[in-house]
């Protein structure tokens, strides 16, 4: 089977897929925007900061398999640095991330030929034109859904807007997506033959019309950088880390509410991530947290090692990679099933699973850690061992193996499955 893969910006998930498909001689082409191999000689002549930025767009495959369509994405990168907000306006801006996805989708669709392909592999928001053309050519359509289906996500976020009206500004753009954008998502899923997800939360969010489709579930990998230093039992306040965009989609309001229930000074809440509202807003909700801005990955891991417990009470995710990063640094977890990481929890051994929207249960588990400080090092060790079972190589191999077993052609005409 020969598969064309398309993704506009790339990430660790995409690299793992490309590597596994290439190893099995299943990769036909990879279409992206800014895309390199990392071995280009001209990279060495660039300033170090620009060089590092471009290396984040490098992929472990030969340059002959990379089809780059860079110019709109280059303008987006320039617009971000120049703060040209009009160009970046969600959905409507010429250089918005939505426009980048649609533009690559259009270019991939135009390039499709049936003679050398069996399937196309595309991602949410960037698959519609590609899948329509693929159906005309009788190709299999593989759809990677990285977060809960939009209807589930919107319903949960609307409920959060009612629970915490003051936090609406932190809920993110998905709650305001236009009907055109959500219709596009629905059509993409309808055209898909195979749906790739990272866990049961995303799979369970699929609407009824899509549940009979072939599904491949493969959990994300954990970072290779794991601490080998033994963690002594801590003294003083329990350092609890939250990491991620600072909004109620990730349950930050619930975590604040939980910490308020505990004796003052017993917890040091460390919040690291991107602000979705002015810092003063968060201080009004709960004043006594330590704010840490985003930073390079190695410094993120170092901050994790300075904490005792990681807490992420998310309402909507796909699978939050930060959970496995925290585990790799020896932190037990307090998480909700909606993080996509229920399989990471061995109750009382690697951490605790709590229901969504339950500050009381979060507080209960924090009290448990306060009363069992001596148990934290061993729980952290078990969390680290458990996280090590999840590798990016296994992530890619599981998907590639499943795809290898698919028929080489579908020959199905395009039709509306709704």
UniProtKB/TrEMBL annotation:
Gene Ontology terms, MF aspect: glycosyltransferase activity
Keyword Iron part of the UniProt annotation: no
InterPro entries assigned to the protein according to its UniProt record, in alphabetical order: Glyco_trans_1 (IPR001296)
Gene3D superfamilies (UniProt xref): Glycogen Phosphorylase B (3.40.50.2000)
Tagged with keyword Transferase: yes
Sequence ranges assigned to domain Glycosyl transferase family in this UniProt record: 236-385
SUPFAM superfamilies: UDP-Glycosyltransferase/glycogen phosphorylase (SSF53756)
Annotated keywords: Glycosyltransferase, Transferase
Alphabetical list of Pfam families matching this protein: Glycos_transf_1
Name of the protein in its database record: Group 1 glycosyl transferase
Taxon lineage: Bacteria, Pseudomonadati, Bacteroidota, Cytophagia, Cytophagales
């Amino acid at each position: 089977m020969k598969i064309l893969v398309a993704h506009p910006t790339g990430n660790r998930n995409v690299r793992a897929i490309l590597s596994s498909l290439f190893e099995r001689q299943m990769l036909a082409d990879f279409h992206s925007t800014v895309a390199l191999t990392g071995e280009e000689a001209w990279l060495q002549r660039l300033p170090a900061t620009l060089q590092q930025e471009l290396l984040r767009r490098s992929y472990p495959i030969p340059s002959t398999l990379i089809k780059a369509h860079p110019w709109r994405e280059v303008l987006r990168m320039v617009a971000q640095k120049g703060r040209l907000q009009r160009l970046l306006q969600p959905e409507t801006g010429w250089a918005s991330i939505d426009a980048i996805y649609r533009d690559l989708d259009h270019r991939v669709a135009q390039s499709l030929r049936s003679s050398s392909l069996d399937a196309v592999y595309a991602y949410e928001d960037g698959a519609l034109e590609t899948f329509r053309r693929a159906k005309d050519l009788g190709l299999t359509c593989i759809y990677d859904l990285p977060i809960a289906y939009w209807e589930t996500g919107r319903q949960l976020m609307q409920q959060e807007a009612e629970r915490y009206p003051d936090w609406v500004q932190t809920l993110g753009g998905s709650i305001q997506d236009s009907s055109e954008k959500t219709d596009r998502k629905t059509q993409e899923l309808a055209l898909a033959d195979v749906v790739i997800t990272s866990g049961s939360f995303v799979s369970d969010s699929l609407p009824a019309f899509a549940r009979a489709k072939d599904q491949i579930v493969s959990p994300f990998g954990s970072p290779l950088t794991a601490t080998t230093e033994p963690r002594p039992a801590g003294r003083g306040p329990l350092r609890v880390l939250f990491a991620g965009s600072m909004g109620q989609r990730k349950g930050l309001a619930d975590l604040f509410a939980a910490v308020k229930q505990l004796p003052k000074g017993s917890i040091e809440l460390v919040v690291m991530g991107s602000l979705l509202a002015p810092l003063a807003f968060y201080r009004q909700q709960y004043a006594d947290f330590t704010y840490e801005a985003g930073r390079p990955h190695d410094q993120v891991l170092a901050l994790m090692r300075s904490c005792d417990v990681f807490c992420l009470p998310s309402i909507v995710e796909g699978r939050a990679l930060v959970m496995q990063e925290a585990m790799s640094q020896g932190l037990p977890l307090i998480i909700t099933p909606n993080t996509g990481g229920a399989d990471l929890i061995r109750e009382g051994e690697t951490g605790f699973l709590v229901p969504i929207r339950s500050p009381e249960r979060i507080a209960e588990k924090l009290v448990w850690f306060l009363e069992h400080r001596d148990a934290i090092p061993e729980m952290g060790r078990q969390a680290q061992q458990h996280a090590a079972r999840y590798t990016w190589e296994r992530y890619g191999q599981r998907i590639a193996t499943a795809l290898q077993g698919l028929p080489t052609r579908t020959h199905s005409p395009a039709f509306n499955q709704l």
